[in-house]
Structure formats: C-alpha cells, structure tokens
Amino acid sequence: MASIEDVADKVRAGDSLSEADSHVLETCRDIISLGMLADTIRRGLHGTAVTYLRVFDLELSGVGSAVVPPAAGEVRILETPASLDAAVAAVTSAREAAGQIPLSAFCLLELSKLPEPLPVVLAALKGAGLDLLTHAPLDRLESPEQMLEAVTDAGMQLARLTIDDTPSRAWTAVCRDVAVHQRRLGSIRAFAPLSRNIDRTQPTTGYGDVKRVALSRLLAQNVSTIQVDWERYGPKLAQVALTFGADDIDSVTSVDDQSQGHRRAPLEEVRRGIAAAGFDPAERDGRFQLRG
Amino acid sequence: MKTENIERRVLEGGRVSVADALVLYQHAPTHVLGRLADSIRRRKHPTSTVTYIIDRNVNYTNVCVAKCNFCAFYREVGSADGYVLGFDEIFRKIDETIEVGGVQLLLQGGHNPDLPITWYEDLFRAVKARYPEFRLHALSPPEVVHISRMSRLSVADVIDRLIAAGLDSIPGGGAEILVDRVRRLLHCYDKATADEWLDVMRQAHQRGLRTTATMMYGTVETLEERVEHMMRLRDLQDETGGFTAFITWSYQPQHTELGGTEATGVDYLRTLALARIVLDNVDNLQASWVTQGGKVGQLSLAFGANDMGSVMIEENVVRAAGAAYCMDEIEIVRNIEDAGFVPKRRNMHYEILGDPIFREREVPRMLSLATARADGAAGEAAELRQYPARSRAGRQNRGH
Fold it and tell me: Which of A96, A186, B167, B384 has CA atoms 20 to 30 A from the CA of A208?
C-alpha cells in the first residue's frame, strides 16, 4: 500500500498518478501534505501568479438598459431564458452593451433543456455574439463528454466546468473524469471544484473544501486553471484555497466601491488577499488574457 | 532566506528566539508553518482529541470609560444606548446555558465607573448561591485594574475579594498587543499598560487561579511587536505556569473609530501557527471561529489549534465590529470529526467533561448567537439603585 510520501515522490518527479495513488490522496487526513503537494503542481503551472476576473453581472430583465463599467473583464448573464429566441435576444442586447469586453452567458445544462437540439442552440448564440458559456455543472450533465464536445464544435469556449452539489461518489473519481474529458476534448480551460449550491444549515467544511481544491489540482493536471469564487465562498476561504492549489479568482466585482476608502474597496481587498497568501495578483479578462 | 535550521530545531523540541520567530513568519511558506505547528500540537496532544466548551459569553455592561479606538461595542457614560444587565437577566442567561449543557459564563464588560466592587461581589455570590457548580470565568485584567482604581484597592486585594465572592478564573481579554507603543496608539494604554495586564495575571496565578491569554493582532502593530507580545506571555508562563490556553484573533474593523481593514485568513493561520511554535509552554491553543468563520476555524486544527473554543451562545463585541458567525455544538462537533479528530467537552481547566451533549439528549439548534438583550433595550436594572454611582449621569439615573 502506497503512502502519501510515495505519492508525493511521484508528484515531485512529475510521474502520472495511478488509481491506487488517488485512493491514497482521497483517504489522506493530512491536509497540510495535500496542500503542499497541490501547491507544488500549482507553482509548476503558474509560478507565483494568481489571476482574478472582474465580472459585470447582467440580469435578464436589465440587459437592454445595462451600462457596462469599463473595468469589467467579462460581462455575464447568469439566468437562462425559457426559449431560444429570448436567449438570442438577450445575447444580442448584451453584446451591444459589452462592446469589446468578453461576453459569457448561461448554463450548458439549462440550454440543453430547450426544445431545440443543443448544436442548434449553441450555433444561434454564437451567431448572436456570445463568446463564452458561463458554466457547465459536471455533476448534473447526463452525457458530459457529448455536451462538452458540442460546445467545442460550435466554436465556443466554456468559461468553467463547475459542480452544483457535493457528489455522492469519491471526489478523486470526479477529478479523474475531468482529466479524462480534458484529454479527449482539450477544451476545459478552468475547473471550479467547490459546490455552487451551498447548504446553509450544513455547509461544507474548510477541510472538505480545501481538500477538494487540492485533489482537483493534483488529479486534473491537464486542466490549466483551478478556480475559486471570491463572492460565493467569501474572501477567507477563497484566499486559503490559493495555498491549496487554486490559481484563479472568479466573480470579483467590476464596480469598485471606494466609499469606505481605497484600502477597503473590493479590488484592493482581492489584491491584498492574493499578496498576503504569497502570490502575485494579475488581472485577466474572460478569455484568460492578462489585462494592463 | 533559508529556514531549515530553525525548522529542524522546532521539530526536535527546541525553543525559538525572537529572531527565529521573525524569520519563520517572514520566510517560511504557510504549509511549513502549519507543519511545524501541527508537530508541536501532536507532541503536546498525542491523542486525536479536540476539545470545546459549552459556555456563554455575557457582557454585563457596554458602558465604558476606556474608549479604545478599535472597539465598536462600548457606549460612553450617560449614553442612551448604555446598559447594565440585572442579576435576574444574568440568572436567565445561566439557566439557558445550563439547558444546552453549559458549565460557565465568560463574563466581561465595559469599564463602567458606576459599578462598585460590591456589585461584582454581590453578583458572584448570588450566582454561586443559585448555581454552586457553575463556573465564573470573569473580568479580564483591564477590568480588574479598573475596579482596583475605582475602589482604591490594590489589584491583589481586588482579586482576593473577587475570589472570595466566587471568581473561578480570569479570561485573557484586553491584552490586544502587550507593547505600550501599540497600546498608546489604540487608546488602551490607560486602561492597562502591558506591565499592568501581565501583573494582574501574575497575581492571579500566584493565588492559584488559572487564566487564558489572548492577542488581538492586525491593527497598528509591527510583526516584531506581535512576536514581543508572544515572548512576554511565554516569559510569564515560564514564571507561573498559570495560562491554560492562548487565543488569537484578528482585529474586526467595522464601525470602529480606528477603521482600516481586517487581516486575511492566511494571516490568521500563519499567526496561529507561529503562536504554537513560540508559546511552547502553553498547552492549549483555541481556534477563533467567531472571527474567522467555521471553515478557517476548522482549518486552525491543522495549524496548531487543539481546541475549537466555545459554543458561545451569545456574543456582542465582535458582532458590533462586523463578525456574525455562529457554530452550535452540533456544528462544532461535525467540524472536529470531519477533520479527523474526536470531540470532547471540557471545562476552563481543560479537564474532559464528556462526549457531545447533543448525543446524550436533545438540544435545540442554534443558528445565530444571542445578544446581551434580545430586544436591544438599554438602561440599568432596578437593583442598581442600591449601589453608589461615581458619574454624574449615573447618580442622576439612580436618583442619588
């Protein structure tokens, strides 16, 4: 039976990890060792850089009248309309409002529920000016590979692969699936491993969250970016996750409220948090291009 | 800078110097600090037990003449928002605490000039008469100094009288940073200098009381001053051995005069780990989930903490400054077990009291912490009229 030290040796040597190694990682209670290993991989891929994305969220009802702040690195429509026509109309208006700023919209799962075949839906949205699909919840896609392939075939990019709920199966199995999909498709730019749905009465734990981030970094090394959401999980956990393998922060507000002073403004908080974790902050846009 | 030599010394059980501590904090990666702190925790606590206490954090008054600029809780003498809890209100809080398995009150409050030492003595005696087994972990060193000044008694006499009335132990609040330069900047030098804070603890320890020690970091102190604080505690612990535990938390800036920003979660874990390394003579380190939230609170267990602190039930001070986290016993136990440890209830002396109460009997869930007064009402209880007030507002209020 391999130990965490054996797996660590493999990681440091750049060897691929077996299913038995995954089991060692899954059952490992030593969160510090997991963090160290994940950080080794993360620094090999990204050095000391941590990117962050400033997002301007658009409500469907407000798309037509939206004034997009120039600081936004991505304009995002989260709600998915009930019809393709409505989705195309929303994208058309948002595209106009966004100008040159990358536009992302919708959940792949929700789009797959529209009456039209998914390739038709994606082609229509692409034609209306959509750059990126906002997310695809891996745990809820019936045939993930087929659906992810449809995105690639439509010439679109998926902004992030996500998880809606805590899966009942081992997290290492989820990570290995992500790695397999990526090997076959090569289109997964970012994986956001923390659950989007948060149970307020029994939230996930700090150990559980950072372990999930660390295992994702270790077992899906062919996915460039492991992402955490500043807003959804809060600055403290998001920052700590950076030391457990995450390299990108999503959902930083594009409206920098400076009413309480520069140091307490959201952007400064993010940059200070990244630096305090020992990394160098770098702003990117929705297409993963560095800004300024 | 290389930290390997210091790391090796720590792993071999050696003591770190001021210079070592500074090098570690400035140059060791976060995981390395965690690993060192965890190795010390395992050496001190070889079983997989993580403890917690069920108690209630009661603030008997918010009226305070200290006016620390980092505090969002206090009200000035004569303020319409000022309050002093009545004995009956405190008894009700004790009843509620006992109902959920609680064993003590953590009783602290503002430096209210209109509460003479006899009020504290009467309160303690009344509590002990009604609840003989219930513990009073009460009055931080600056409060003891304040009572000493108000009553014109020595600190030693104040402690003796409070012990005689029922004081069981002293909480380590009001330490902030035990460096007078910092205390002057925080307007807390006058409430107690660093030496005065330490002297109260020394005298308490000499009388057989056990106490805790704390550190609030992230205001105006330098890293050197943070380390100096730890060193002063370590020196006193070498002398008396009276500290049961150390608790550190980050300054909470909202609604305070000082303002500014809160130190980050990684800062917290690094500071906690450094404290575990420096304070090699303090057995127990608590996780401050009330300022860091449950997630970073739980991760503290990998960075040197061996105790999840208190269920708390009520909290007023950090809430006033913007932190509003809550963990009831079920949530604390779930987090301890999820991290691979065995949860045990304890008392202030860190004696194990048993397994989680909610596994023995039904306990109501608690999804938010209570406040001093549920309705937010201000004012004093009627029995205060029998005590002399020093302030003009206090005398008017009591009809003296």
Answer: A186
How are beta strands B104-108 and B55-59 bridged, if at all? parallel
d(CA A197, CA B346): 35
User: How far is Cα B322 from Cα B318, in angstroms, rounded to an integer?
Assistant: 6
Q: Check: CB of residue B171 under 8 Å from CB of residue B138.
A: yes
Q: What is the per-residue pLDDT across A223-253, written as a single tens digit (0 to 9) for each?
A: 999 999 988 888 999 999 999 999 999 999 8
Cβ pairs A/B, distance under 8 A: 92
CATH number at residue A99: 3.20.20.70
In a domain, A30, yes or no: no
Beta strands in A230-292 (DSSP E): 248-253, 280-284
In the predicted model, what is the mean pLDDT of residues A53-77? Answer: 91
What is the block-wise mean pLDDT of chain B (400 residues), using blocks of 10 residues?
A: 92 97 97 98 96 96 96 94 95 94 96 98 98 98 98 98 98 98 97 98 98 98 98 98 98 93 96 98 97 96 97 82 83 96 97 96 85 79 91 90
Q: Which two tokens stand for residue A196?
A: 């989007």
Token duo for residue B214: 């704390």
Reading the block at residue B383, the tokens are 């029995």
B35, A32: Cβ pair inside 8 Å? yes
* Whether residue A256 has pLDDT greater than 80: no
The alpha carbon of residue B153 and the mean position of all alpha carbons in its chain are separated, in whole angstroms, by: 25
Determine the structural domain holding residue A131 and report its residue range.
Answer: 41-284
pLDDT of residue A258: 67
Within a domain: residue A27? Answer: no
pLDDT tens per residue, range A93-107: 999 999 999 999 999
**Cβ contact, residue pair B302, A207, below 8 Å:** yes
Alpha helices in chain B (DSSP H): 4-11, 18-27, 30-44, 87-99, 117-130, 141-151, 155-165, 180-185, 194-206, 223-240, 265-278, 289-299, 317-320, 329-338, 392-397
Tell me which chain B residues have a C-beta less than 8 angstroms from the C-beta of A205. 294-295, 298, 334-335, 338-339
Contacts of B30 in chain A (CB under 8 A): 243, 277-278
Fold that domain B14-397 belongs to in CATH? TIM Barrel (3.20.20)
Whether residue A278 and residue B299 make contact (CB cut-off 8 A), yes or no, is no
The ipTM of this complex is 0.93
Domain membership of residue A70 (yes or no) is yes
Domain count, chain A: 1
Of B30, B259, B265, the CB nearest to A237: B265
Q: Are B170 and B203 in contact (CB under 8 A)?
A: no
Assigned domain for A16 exists? no
Per CB-CB distance under 8 Å, the chain B contacts of A201 are: 367
